[in-house]
Amino acid sequence: MNDRYSGTQITLHWLSALLVICTLSLPYAQDLVADLLGGTGGVFTLHKSLGLTILLLTVLRLLVRARQGTPRLLADHARWQHTAAKLGHGVLYVLLLAMPLSGLLFGKRPVEMFWLVTIDPLPVSDATRALARQFHLTAKYLLFALILGHACMALWHHYGLRDGVLRAMLPRR
Question: What is the pTM of this model?
Fold first, then answer.
């Protein structure tokens, strides 16, 4: 069993991380970037485009993970750490899939994917739209917390335990 993730897995992880940070930041930074993107509508066009890109990347990441597996990095750790790591990653993946889908569900206007392709709104009831909107707006806080926890755990493994977990997800030098 390898002690590192593959180059494909590493690239997809860091690309996803960058896109998630950008996507989560856009609504908060709209005053700073709206003029660059043609107004508030442009900010949300980019936000939705990045969200759908994250959805596609997450599906690809899961397919690559299923095919290539993961390194056995926590072999010497307690069982609860394995369980916590699996649970944390599982919830992160669920949110990376559910957030863009809920965004699609609650939108009433077509989504212009990077101003190139138009995706019509999904035909759902107003109650479903309201539920999807509430989920989307609430789940972002859970996503913030999970990202912070994920980063803290990676740093704890690297600087506290010195066990190679973070190195396994960093590009080779």
Answer: 0.92
